[in-house]
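SEQUENCE WITH STRUCTURE:
===
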Amino acid sequence: MNEKYWLVVQYPLKSAQGSKRDHWLKEKVIEYLETVLTQAELGEVDGCDLGSRVADPKEYVMNIFCVVTDEDRSIALIKKVLRESRLDYTRIQIATMPYGTEGSYTLKYASKKGVTEFSL
């Protein structure tokens, strides 16, 4: 059985467009995730968006979307790579959802204690 999952790495932003550094961060995170997920044969980066959070239009986020085959291993690998590469690991949230469904994402990791909800 070869199940797939949507996995999203989310960073908070201060504006809908993001800063120059946010755009640099986006490019670096996508580059690193594409490399490690492909090398580990766990999946690939599918895309990215920056803008208002769906649940609260006054909050801004950057979402990096991946399609992965092993949810737990992918999360562990992504956390390790972002931490070791110093790509703002202390600001991320990671959530997943079964691929091909229209459900909602389930929060799997939050860098801040006490965070239990996730929203694109």
User: Anything to note?
Assistant: The chain has a mean pLDDT of 95. The two ends are 29 Å apart (CA to CA). The chain has two helices and five strands. Residues 5 and 99 are 4 Å apart (CA to CA).
